[in-house]
UniProtKB/TrEMBL annotation, chains A, B, C, D:
<dbReference type="InterPro" id="IPR050129">
    <property type="entry name" value="Zn_alcohol_dh"/>
</dbReference>
<dbReference type="Pfam" id="PF08240">
    <property type="entry name" value="ADH_N"/>
</dbReference>
<feature type="binding site">
    <location>
        <begin position="212"/>
        <end position="214"/>
    </location>
    <ligand>
        <name>NADP(+)</name>
    </ligand>
</feature>
<feature type="binding site">
    <location>
        <position position="90"/>
    </location>
    <ligand>
        <name>substrate</name>
    </ligand>
</feature>
<keyword id="KW-0560">Oxidoreductase</keyword>
<feature type="binding site">
    <location>
        <begin position="305"/>
        <end position="307"/>
    </location>
    <ligand>
        <name>NADP(+)</name>
    </ligand>
</feature>
<dbReference type="GO" id="GO:0008270">
    <property type="term" value="F:zinc ion binding"/>
</dbReference>
<keyword id="KW-0520">NAD</keyword>
<keyword id="KW-0862">Zinc</keyword>
<feature type="binding site">
    <location>
        <begin position="277"/>
        <end position="279"/>
    </location>
    <ligand>
        <name>NADP(+)</name>
    </ligand>
</feature>
<dbReference type="InterPro" id="IPR031640">
    <property type="entry name" value="Glu_dehyd_C"/>
</dbReference>
<dbReference type="GO" id="GO:0070401">
    <property type="term" value="F:NADP+ binding"/>
</dbReference>
<feature type="binding site">
    <location>
        <position position="39"/>
    </location>
    <ligand>
        <name>substrate</name>
    </ligand>
</feature>
<feature type="binding site">
    <location>
        <position position="307"/>
    </location>
    <ligand>
        <name>substrate</name>
    </ligand>
</feature>
<comment type="similarity">
    <text>Belongs to the zinc-containing alcohol dehydrogenase family. Glucose 1-dehydrogenase subfamily.</text>
</comment>
<feature type="binding site">
    <location>
        <position position="151"/>
    </location>
    <ligand>
        <name>substrate</name>
    </ligand>
</feature>
<feature type="binding site">
    <location>
        <position position="155"/>
    </location>
    <ligand>
        <name>substrate</name>
    </ligand>
</feature>
Length: 366, 366, 366, 366
């Protein structure tokens, strides 16, 4: 059966025939489509150091964003039927630590978890795979067109949930009408993650300001203004935002750049929180003890955010459905391209390079 | 301008002309439609003891479920524009207790709150009213057809939120995949409230069993089975549910009948919670000290549930949007009838009697 | 070695020689003293239906309140040394459900837990026992005289923790100074449990009213007034408390009598909570649907409370230490009698009958 | 009446006679003793930029740590009597923001709060002051000798409460026995704050490692080893702690030095939290984007910690009482010196310089 495989740490990917259906469990899933994200490209380009084939195997099937259809199912499995659309959860627990035992390997303490298509477990860019219903999320067919976004969105659902949990440290962080409507979130970066988290924060009632070091493209205007967010051109830093726009109560960084984060921190209000979501490497910024003092005087929290689990996939699907109904002109712009698995070169090219303006690109298997 | 008024405690309602636009605040709202609920009918029929005109007025404008369009707006009001669809919040705080100060009069401690169309404040069955943006919730136009349901749904959003908060008393009440998918909620009653809370509990991932003392109607089958819920005929009590179906982790009562609740309690599992939502009056049930002991041995909680506020209205609208996308065949059945304000007799009749099978009936003003 | 054994469901207890040191684990504990509580007496008198010997054994060593000294310890055990004073935890988990896996068998969902000296596991009225350090709590020697109270107090620590967790359902349940000082707790019953929970609630800052159907004894006056609590003679019910004393925000029942609870509920304030702790059997009370409606209108919660675990034992010891320093005249009255294990008849008599005015009676083994 | 006054921003302090009793409210308090802390010295030495006299006054009475005795009381004040020992709360709210309205000016959002003896409000180094009972905490006389520590300890009570609230972001952060006994806290700095937080963390069940860049003094050994804490000589950084001692789940910094914090972060475990408590100024440290990535990969939170309020004062007193009973040899070492108000030069000298080994120094007024 056809699969897209990689052999980390070597760069490169190939679409090839494999002999054995990967995975285990009582449900056989036929793949419908995959999403491609930045991590896939880092693996394919050989720049993601954590990529690893499963134990005793010499290749890794790529792909951690997938939708499939239930093809066969063993007797006794409840809650799923042949023909159901499903998404597999990509991270699987270590089996030992308490967080993994309660189904939350996003907080695994041993580091012994695996990630499908990334490290230690085959991914889902393959015609068929077996799985356990515990790791399959049912997808409402009415939103099949955008449901692939539930995988990246699940990480953001978990992130906002974690941010709101941390903010319970503030006795009253809601507004005088019980909502978050008076609170402002600053989203740094306007890519796929910045886009999805903006929609999510708007859904929670926050005012949202999206920042990038330039003016928005026409498509960005349609998306961000279409959900009631504002745009901030951060080419000159964040002082204007802090001084004239009242600053922000949440800063959600999707860049991972420490220099950007340091600059944006000046705009974080009293009792605010900085969420770190993006990855970068080499930038530097100097902090002084006086910077730490500001975190204390202003009661600021910082939190590293990572990986959603099954509850977050499920909530992501609910939110995607809501967005499709509320903001059809926006959701129709989120899947920026679909490539057919049979167009090998196009697929492999898409796995190597991000297209300009790309939000989400899908590989279709059907 | 036209309004539907009552003069409690006298029964009866009339559609009449009034002189002064009710309400106060910088936003003038033109009514689009009202929903009718059981409380409206109790007021009209003179059986709701709490009904009361505003201070120094001799009539009460009825109506606490409403959607209107912003007609005029004073300068300086943010976040709203002429032409926006809005829903008014129906309960307004006492202005004194800490819960009201933080925008949560659902937990008012003084009892000094007012409720539009019910007690101490004019309602929204009137051509125009003034209001403060603090009490207006923006309605996405794409779901205008079902958005009136956000008012009753807001009470249920708050109820499930409160239930989940109470259940944090159990160290791990989620399943081994981090979701609520392994937990069962028993909803007693299949009316409007039972229907909406079933959809909501399904959205949170719970298995749901809807109970009534009969088999479901064809429409009930379409709705409840359409969202993956089960039906339980409780004509013979709840023993079969307790014995053969594993019982329930949540019992959500919409009947208010103490005899029904007592019978259903036998089906409540360890660490379970009973939510009380419905009202009734005269039924009786005898409890023994041994019944209390069962609440202790089984770590059971009971909680009285009432009234949603602005955050719950907002979340209700998000959920309605999601349902419209995910379950269009179900949501299309939730508005069971629309009556035109100009058909006076039909409107007044609808205010007196519930139609068989009614979920939500709307009065259209346009 | 000497042990106090029972053979449930037969009544009676005997002090006898047994052959094998009970328990398992790397720590050998020499018993110093046991506490006697109502459950012990119910087992001895044959009225506690749940009593059960361990699997494949024909007797049960009694005793779930104990302090011992570490006599021997296997290599590799951290955090304990020979000579340390320790208390064993009495309930041990089922090993399967998620709550037991995270160390909280007080919320065991399978019912498969055991309770030392009560059901399925030997107790601690025995010269020596083996145990795992996981189940041993280190006791500060400076409070050895009253430390036995940490076992019953652990149940109350957990109960108040659970009550406060449930009350997070109310957006603001603290006072305008951030404390609970403006909140009143009504404790029904002035026995050992009523006494300990009064001290605990005072420690949390609550005003406390202790109710019993008579005036207080001189000793009760010294204890309750000594910690700033009030007394309420409930011989004529709770209407006076509701009407003239402002009612209560917490009702903590230690009687288990449904008739008493029903009467006291009239005094429970808006947003209040009723905690059920005591056991009784045969009393009856009739509730109407209108009573349920009151729970809704007043946002009331009810919660069954049971069993503390290791975190609660540890906190109980901290609180006992605080009380010993703050209220020495009160804590000196809490151990009402000590009997020597060698006075067999006295011990067996104490296991059958509660002395008047008893708060805690200890069996000394040294 | 006698008072110790300063005239910020000018350095210097004087003991002088003032004409008017400061403060307002129905309770007149006669001062018994004050504590001196680092902030007092910074004000006296002119290095604390925030110091400010009350509006329209040209001097500021110093002192935010105080115990007094109730000298007179207006009719109608409950819960206090003439002769009671009391501590005044030092920070008072802005009167406007929601956090101040609910009694939590530690999270004031306007910055409009005042701090007695520091900014905008007279302090308590004065023979008498008036106050409102809302801001007075009753002190158990049995712990009068160490109760002055409740002021600095209140900040730490709040800090640990906030840390534990933030950590609820981790689904299971307790150990497999439900406690924190398996978690390690690293306290950086062994001064007064490091000492008090060590005792507090031990009370919560944490293992504690105290770090300083040298070996402990004999007194430090007695205190830290006496409560079961360990010592880590950090002269060579924190690598050994990370590598050989398993790292830490909490890092509690009392130095405020960004270079120290950066070095210690390498020892913070997965799901860990860094609490920032101390102030410093000029040190620098360079962070790279890869450092941020570590915060994400390891699910780390950072939180700025500041100021306890009335609930924390009350809990601090309970803990001090517990420590006095459990660890008498440790608590007897916490007050390192008492100076008499009549020895002007000694008092002024103590206000300028910290003695070597000082934990808490008191000024006695009687």
């Amino acid at each position: 059966m056809k699969a897209i495989i990689v052999k980390p740490p070597r760069p490169g990917a190939e679409i090839t025939e494999i002999q054995r259906t990967p995975g285990k469990g009582p449900v056989l899933v036929k793949i419908v489509e995959n999403g491609i994200c930045g991590t896939d490209r880092e693996i394919v380009n050989g720049t993601f150091s954590g990529a690893q084939a499963p134990p005793n195997e010499d290749y890794l099937i790529l792909g951690h964003e997938a939708i499939g259809v239930v093809e066969k199912i063993e007797k006794g499995v409840e809650d799923l039927e042949v023909g159901d659309l499903v998404m597999p959860i990509n991270r699987r627990g270590c089996g030992h630590c308490l967080n993994c035992l309660v189904g939350r390997p996003d907080f695994c303490e041993t580091g012994g978890f695996v990630e499908a298509g990334i490290t230690g477990m085959h991914g889902f860019m393959v015609e068929y795979f077996y799985d356990d219903p515990k790791y399959l999320v049912k997808v409402p067919k009415a939103i099949a067109d955008i449901a692939i976004l539930a995988q990246p969105l699940s990480d953001l659902e978990k992130s906002i949930e974690e941010i709101l949990t941390v903010q319970r440290r503030v006795p009253v962080w809601t507004c005088d009408d019980g909502t978050y409507n008076c609170r402002t979130a600053l989203v740094i970066g306007s890519g796929a993650i910045g886009t999805l988290v903006t929609l999510l924060l708007r859904t929670y009632g926050f005012k949202v300001i999206v920042a990038n070091r330039r003016d928005p493209t026409p498509r960005e205007k349609e998306i961000f203004f279409g959900v009631g967010a504002k745009w901030y051109n951060s080419a000159n830093g964040y002082e204007e935002l802090a001084r004239d726009m009242g600053g922000a109560d949440i800063i959600f960084d999707t860049t991972g750049r420490v220099d950007v984060v340091k600059s944006a921190l000046t705009a974080l209000r009293i009792n605010g929180i900085l969420g770190l979501f993006g990855f970068s490497e080499a930038e530097r910024a100097e902090f002084t003890s006086a910077d730490l003092k500001q975190l204390i005087y202003r009661n600021i929290a910082v939190v590293g955010l990572d990986n959603g689990q099954k509850p977050h996939f499920q909530q992501a699907l609910v939110h995607l459905a809501a967005w499709k109904a509320m903001w059809p002109d926006v959701t129709s712009k989120l899947i920026t391209r679909v490539v057919e698995i049979n167009n090998k070169d196009t697929v492999l090219d898409a796995l190597r390079h991000r297209s300009p303006g790309e939000i989400k690109i899908k590989i279709s298997w059907q």
